[in-house]
Automatic annotation (TrEMBL):
Protein's organism: Companilactobacillus heilongjiangensis
PANTHER family: GLYCOSYL HYDROLASE-RELATED (PTHR11051), PROTEIN-GLUCOSYLGALACTOSYLHYDROXYLYSINE GLUCOSIDASE (PTHR11051:SF8)
Glycoside hydrolase family 65 C-terminal domain ranges (all copies): 700-753
One Gene Ontology term from the biological process aspect of the record: carbohydrate metabolic process
Protein name per the record: Uncharacterized protein
Keyword Transferase: yes
């Protein structure tokens, strides 16, 4: 498996670079992202470079200008450190850099960079370290050690808060106030232009010469939207100057705000600034270890450690981006870049949620509470369209927002005009996907308290929307769903997209089941919900409409038509698009109108349906549909490979499964240096975990419970992992010849239609 980033043979938790490679900085910035679910910072270098893209976000602080889509504003930069050596600016583009190494430790999120730099007669050794704290969500700490190797030098260090950052040109912040507190604390207060979220950012520095702390007050420099502290120190040959930067960020919508952003920021930094870098790092590493890694375990014994690194990397990014409270969601690119503006998609429920609910269910719980809060926006959206219930936004930002998808995209190859993005109005399957995610969570965790308080209501609101969205077609004597975009976004006006119809059918049926069940078994919840819906009327409507909804059945060849017309469209040879390193290559040859009429599929569509509904659809049609759709799918979305890998493994195409697994790992880690520059692909990363656990590990939540039916790649000696199933910690070991299951509580699982019971701490071993 080829990676575009360096790894080490003997370290499963390290990715990095061994030469400065400044032309590809933007890719490394995304890959070496640091975050804690509140604060997210790209891995930009401390000193500036031409093609850098500095981004720092606080989750849930969206801002919107008229005629533009709402987006997470790019905060003032706190990473910057400018160093002058005898008047010459440190830059890897000048002088000679040797022994360069920069790496991200995936175990605790620390970035370490070290190198020797020779400029003129001066040679110095530099070591930079930094982390975003998992222990204190507001905190970022960085440290630089500089040792002159050839002669005494004068070092000038400039560090501060730089608000001249934009989101691709849009400045979201007003010119705020900038000042120094207690002669040492540099602070900027600012506010978003339209959403009026207030921010305070504070920085405090400590300097040491060898072990002795220097009492130096900075020389302040204030510019437009910038405030810097400057220091000047003489350092003798072989002495080590250590510069420690403590920086923190508070926002006015923080849930832990005590006083106001400025005071909270300052008080906290005064307190934290007494600790050493190392001590604060240990506190953060401790949280990674105790609260995260102990509950999320995957070990792959293979002929090399690339698969292990890929799954560690995926887990690192997912946890670093998982919201630490329930009012936020995970953007398609997390906080790792400006791509998709911080918006959340169906990516969360269908791709990321399984990871969280089987590892640390409290994160999944938070994500679903967000969707409960998001009912405000979703109900608004339904009403705007003349529908009932709740219609979830295709792109979600603040929970109260109805739809955040932009209206215009890139230029049409034929007309030269910007293409209208229809997803916000017609990619409606998200409303069933959210309900599906809610139900999967309830099934996997057994969290009926959430179900009663919020989960059932979400499903019912969605079901009510669908009941008002389906339309009667007297020709076929069925309800149908017309003019939608399914997962294959290259069909913009599909009628009866199979994925959408089956999901909607499931949602309405589940809604009816929930009402019937509550009426029989839980009158308290029933009457509470009855105040929001007319439950009797709704159940009747859901039963009637779900039973009469048109569901495209497999045809005589076993093929489920992707939509009413897909099978009649022209077929073309798509090899050149499938093998291209770049996505959207097909737009060089066709525009969307033309693609609408071709048998070309952007990403897993019917195949995803077959995976999600493997319980309900005949198993023997998977291979036929694979043979039909897989060759027509050009994988122009990072969501596609994982479904293909898992299905291929299921149907015994083991080489293809591994091939798709590799492709999936390479979405971000691979050699295409143009990909990921606007952020990594969170659903693709979740896909890496899914392929390993759901695919090779064979873990599925099926109708009758937990199924474990593993098959690992032939190059793997074993796969070991843990998961949480209905509150029990389950450890699974899979080898080429057997698998074993141990649980800390009583569980049962299904393997090839047999049910196995596991007593607490008893090891059940099954030969494969
Ligand atoms: C995909 C969508 C996905 C979005 C965000 C698009 O390219 O087609 O399915 O939700 O990216 O990841």
């Amino acid at each position: 498996m080829l990676f575009g980033i360096a790894t080490k043979k003997d370290d499963d938790w390290w990715i990095g670079v061994t030469n400065p490679d400044t032309p590809h900085l933007s890719k490394y910035e995304s890959l070496m992202f640091q975050g804690n679910g509140y604060l997210g910072i790209r891995g930009s270098l401390e000193e500036h470079y031409l093609n850098e893209k500095r981004d720092m976000f606080v989750l849930g602080t969206f801002d919107k200008f008229k005629n533009e889509a709402t987006e997470l504003p790019n905060l003032p930069d706190i990473v910057n450190i400018e160093i002058m050596v005898n008047g010459k600016l440190l830059s890897l583009n000048h002088g000679e850099t040797t022994n360069y190494q920069r790496g991200l430790n995936l175990h605790n999120g620390e970035i370490v960079r070290s190198f020797d730099w020779l400029n003129g007669k001066d040679k110095l050794h530099f070591e930079f370290r930094r982390f975003v704290s998992m222990d204190n969500c507001h905190l970022f700490v960085s440290e630089v050690k500089v040792t002159p190797l050839s002669d005494n030098v004068r070092l000038q260090i400039k560090s501060g808060i730089d608000g001249q950052q934009t989101n691709g040109g849009t400045q979201h912040f007003v010119e705020g106030t900038k000042r120094l507190f207690n002669a040492r604390f540099v602070q900027m207060q600012t506010q978003t232009q339209n959403s009026l979220v207030k921010f305070a950012l504070t920085e405090y520095h400590r300097l040491f010469l060898n072990a002795t702390e220097l009492t130096l007050n900075p020389r302040l420099q204030i510019e437009r939207r910038q405030i810097f502290a400057n220091y000047s120190i003489d350092v003798e040959k072989d002495q080590c100057l250590t510069f420690v930067k403590y920086a923190n960020v508070f926002a006015s919508n923080d849930q832990d705000l005590k006083d106001n952003v400025s005071m909270d920021c300052l008080c906290q930094l005064k307190h934290v600034g007494r600790e050493s870098y190392q001590k604060l790092l240990e506190a953060s590493s401790h949280v990674w270890e105790e609260k995260i890694w102990q509950d999320s375990f995957v070990e792959i014994a293979s002929h090399n450690n690339k698969p292990q690194i890929a799954v560690n990397y995926a887990r690192y990014q997912l946890f670093a981006n998982a919201p630490c409270d329930y009012s936020k969601n995970i953007g398609a690119k997390g906080m790792t870049g400006e791509g998709y503006k911080g918006h959340a998609f169906w990516d969360t429920e269908i791709f990321m949620l399984p990871f969280f609910m089987l590892n640390i269910p409290s994160y999944a719980h938070n994500l679903l509470i967000y969707r409960y809060l998001n009912l405000i926006g979703a109900q608004k959206k339904a009403r705007q369209g003349g529908y009932q219930g709740a219609q979830y936004p295709w792109e979600a930002a603040m929970p109260e927002d109805a739809e955040s998808a932009p209206l215009w995209g890139s230029a049409d190859i034929i007309t030269g005009e910007p293409m209208k993005i229809l997803s916000g109005s017609t990619e409606i399957h998200v409303t069933a996907d959210v309900a599906f995610g809610v139900y999967q969570y309830i099934k996997n965790t057994g969290d009926y308290s959430f179900a009663k308080r919020m989960g059932y209501e979400i499903i019912l609101q969605c079901a009510q929307f669908w009941a008002s969205r389906v339309t009667w077609n007297s020709e076929i004597n069925h309800f149908e769903i017309t003019d939608v975009i399914g997962p294959d976004e290259y069909k913009e006006h599909a009628n009866n997209n199979a994925f959408t119809n089956y999901m909607v059918h499931w949602c309405m049926r589940k809604g009816a089941e929930i009402i019937t069940d509550l009426r029989q078994n839980d009158l308290i919840t029933y009457s509470r919900l009855n105040k929001k819906f007319d439950m009797k009327k709704l159940v009747k409507e859901l039963i009637e409409k779900s039973s009469m909804l048109y569901l495209p059945a497999p045809n005589e060849n076993g093929i489920i038509a992707q939509d009413d017309n897909y099978l009649s469209y022209k077929k073309i040879n798509v090899n050149k698009y499938r093998t291209s390193d770049n996505i959207s290559e097909i737009f060089k040859d066709f525009d969307l109108k033309q693609l609408d009429k071709l048998q070309v599929t952007k990403q897993a569509d019917v195949l995803l349906l077959l995976l999600l509904f493997e319980d309900e659809l005949p198993k023997n049609i998977i291979k036929q549909n694979w043979d039909y759709y897989e060759p027509k799918t050009i994988h122009d979305s990072s969501l596609s490979f994982s479904t293909h890998a898992i299905l291929a493994n299921d149907i015994g195409l083991y080489d293809r499964a591994f091939d798709y697994f590799e492709k999936n790992c390479q979405i971000d880690l691979g050699t295409n240096m143009g990909s990921s520059v606007k952020g990594v692909h969170m659903a693709g990363l979740a896909g890496t975990w899914k392929i390993v656990i759901e695919g090779f590990g064979g873990i599925r939540a099926v109708k009758d419970g937990l199924r474990i039916q593993p098959h690992i790649p032939s190059t793997w000696k074993h796969l070991k992992f843990s998961l949480i199933w209905r509150g029990n910690k389950v450890d699974v070991l899979v080898t080429q010849t057997y698998f074993s299951v141990i649980s800390d509580g009583k569980i049962k699982f299904i393997y090839h239609d047999h049910i196995y019971h596991v007593e607490p701490q008893e090891r059940v071993l099954i030969e494969i």
